[in-house]
Amino acid sequence: MRAIAVSSAHSAPSPARRSRKRVPIARAPHVAEGGEMSTRNFDLIVLGVGMAAVNAANKCASAGWSVAVVDALPYGGTCALRGCDPKKMLRRGAEIIDAARLMHGKGIEPNDIAINWPDLVAFTQTFTDKMPGRIENGLESNGVTTLHGKARFVGEDTVEIDGEGQFQANHFLIATGAKPQTIDVPGSEHLTDSTEFMRLDALPERILFIGGGFISFEFGHIAARAGSEVCMIDRGERPLKGFDADLVERLVARGEEVGVQLRRRTSLKSIKKDGTDFLVTVETGSETKDLRADLVVQGAGRVAAIDQLDLAAANVEAGDKGVAVNAYLQSTSNPKIYAAGDAADTQGAPLTPVAVFEGKVAASNMLKGNRTKPDYSGVPSAVFTVPELTRVGMLEQDAREAGHDIRVVENDTGDWYSNLRVGESCAATKVIIDKDSDTILGAHLLGPEYGEIINFFGLAIRLGLTTSDLKKMVSVYPSVGSDLGSMLS
Fold it and tell me: Which of 49, 262, 306, 359 could form a disulfide linkage to 75, CB 3.0–4.6 angstroms apart?
């Protein structure tokens, strides 16, 4: 695939490119003589304004390019507005409830502690309400033109935004993120997605989650601590398939203790309204059963949000996983177009940090030609249940199948000081080490604050550090970080 050359015209921005004026599409279409709509030209137009988009737009604008961004939704993307950040603020309520219960009989009386759901939701909005304006102001201060509306391609280098105007660019970055996948069963219109869940005025008494992934586990653990009766159904034998099986089973058992019920090998057949209830028909093997719930949440995964872009008009090949791209994040069928984040079909996990560095890589390749490939090594991920489940690198089975001679270090850390201190007995670690090189191949942790510890293992994998290197770290004591060396032996 050919590289995109950068012309000398980009070396010094013109006065027009230094403009920081926001263009309100609905109010100021560009009309040429004779009444015909004119087309505005940019070096780069970014579709979607999440974290991948913001990083790419700012990078290209700082290099002197004329850049525009467009989104029909408030600026910020899923993570800042509808996912990671507000979700973890909701989790704070669950953490406090759980922490108090774990310390019952150890000096804390938790009986009067409860979650006020409307107040907790309002707390999350103190963050999310400010983000769109902050992001837009930041883009404008960097010289990026900010547009609002639905964009669709009308040619290989042209988009139309809400029928109000056409915009041409030398390059496009598709960074529209992901959305809940469609579940094709009768009554699917009754499903609530994760975005709607975080805006609920009140938390229902009975909640049924469809799917055994991140969304179901994270929101299920929050809802159970808030007093709801929670049930999850999963089609497979075990949920959270990307995580260590042994640690997943520990987490499932911990969830059951607080009221998170899991039905395995169970598929959704239909949903219908029955008075004030939802009657949910599920199938386990050959047995069909009706479950009743006040709320049914779609937690069965997400797909690239690209269906409204009319990619065929731009000759952009794409599938369920996103835009087909080469190793440089460039479209395999239209060299003017790049993609990053959840909208791109790459080896990267659907995580915000991945979207951020893919956005930077795509911007670099548009500016300088295709020289840089994204590095996905050592990228950690976490399920923010209570306690949290984390991983980075290979699973044990993956390492063996890849031919590594491995040493597996397993520890039940439930009685270690850092967990004893907070009353949590559900904690364990598994670290996969290459015997020949003494480097970390994978790390899998379940326990309080282990979402912080996993970052050290990610850094070790990314930099090729050995276990001997990690053991040389001198930590603050007593802290959870001081357990790192013991996790390696």
Answer: 49
Structure-block tokens of residue 9: 């015209």
d(CA 175, CA 54): 9
Residue that has been written with the tokens 């199948």 in this structure: 401
The residue written with tokens 């009444």 in the block is 35
Residue 335's CB is within 10 A of a number of other CB atoms, namely 16
Measured in Å, how far apart are the chain's first and last C-alpha atoms?
47
Half-sphere exposure (Cβ direction) of 385: Cα atoms closer than 13 Å: 30
Residue 421, token pair as written in the block: 């201190």
Identity of residue 259: G
pLDDT reported for residue 38: 66
Q: Given a cut of 80, is residue 33 above it in pLDDT?
A: no
Closest among 245, 242, 246, 293 to 271, alpha carbons compared: 293
Q: Quickly count: other Cβ atoms within 10 Å of residue 265's Cβ.
A: 13
Closest by CA to 60, choosing from 45, 78, 75, is 45
Q: Where are the beta strands (DSSP E) in 189-321?
A: 206-210, 229-233, 260-263, 266-274, 277-284, 287-293, 295-298, 302-304, 318-319
Q: 67 pairs with which residues across the strands?
A: 44
Q: How confident is the model at residue 85 (pLDDT cuts 50, 70, 90)?
A: very high
Q: With cut-offs at 50, 70 and 90, classify the pLDDT of residue 4.
A: very low
CB 433 within 8 A of CB 441: yes
